[in-house]
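Running this now, will post back.
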Amino acid sequence: MKHDDPSAAKLSRCAFILAPALGSVLSRLAILAVFVFVHTPLHASGSADPMVASAPESEPRTSAQAERERGENQKSADDWSRIPDAQRGESGGAPDESEGARKPDGAYQSPYRLKFTVPESELLFDAKTKRGSVAEQSPVPESEWRSERLKEKLGSWGPHPRQFDCPAEVKAKPAEWKRERVIAAASRFLGYDYQHHHIPDWDPATGWPWKEVCSGRNGKGVDCSNFSAFNYNWALGVHLSTGIGPQAEQREVPSADGRVAAKVIARPAGEPDAWYDELVRTLKPGDLLYIRTSDMSKVSHVIMWLGSCAEGPDGTPLVMDSHGAGVKDANGVAIPCGVHIRPFAKGSWYHRSFDHAHRLIGD
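Update: finished.
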């Protein structure tokens, strides 16, 4: 005759009672695992540039740095989709100053060149690591950059930018080195189109929503304030607003290591011709200059001062920006729409409509 084991019976009853609760816990863990997978930025395993794919990664981050970066980059596509276009980054109100300019004979050849006091490879030591790859420009996985979901949420602007940390190697460098690094970082995008995008290397799919610009087509590129913001973000971990209006008003800028106070260089009093030379002497490489519309009604553009880091055949001070056509170079050739080195000529729109400048790298 078989006898039931009372301890086994108790275990059976406990299992019967706990099964639903255990199932609920496992279900929640499964849901959490899926959520973490979906919201964790993925990194592309390959790149168009084989040097990027095979290059070593930069110095490992500490757990505190990694945690801070995860927090900064958890801004969702939903948050960015609610930002008005006027705060994302636009420029306008620029006069056409290219009258009499010749069209480039083939691909545009700039008469200007950059020059640095340290090797460019040292300034951009991390450009060919994972940190400098195209996939890292946004926390949105590169595989989703052309997805219907992103198109619905962010439209023509595309993926929002990653908020970068400041590499330890950069923090210890003097101010002059940091100024050159920001300019070297910006120079990686020379020749890119002017586009209303948040990140330079986003190349939308055919038929993607598009805000018409001077390039006449959609493709890789960035506008003026997204360009200035991305350069400071990647080079120094300084997180400027991407909208031209808010960026021009930022007196304290969030960064990977706290907040950076912007030194404001105001428009001098008097007629522009009287203070041009004074302003040129005051500015330093990497300063951001905010330019008003021709009627001076509002700030509509931002340019980066190159100073001693660039030179041209006629000695005119130079800037770098993403801008529409309408400026001619020292050779009388029309500078194309997009990211280029341009002259800050006396009497030009840049000069006469200068409003103020921000210096984000301390003296």
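DSSP finds twelve helices and twelve strands in the chain. More later if anyone needs it.
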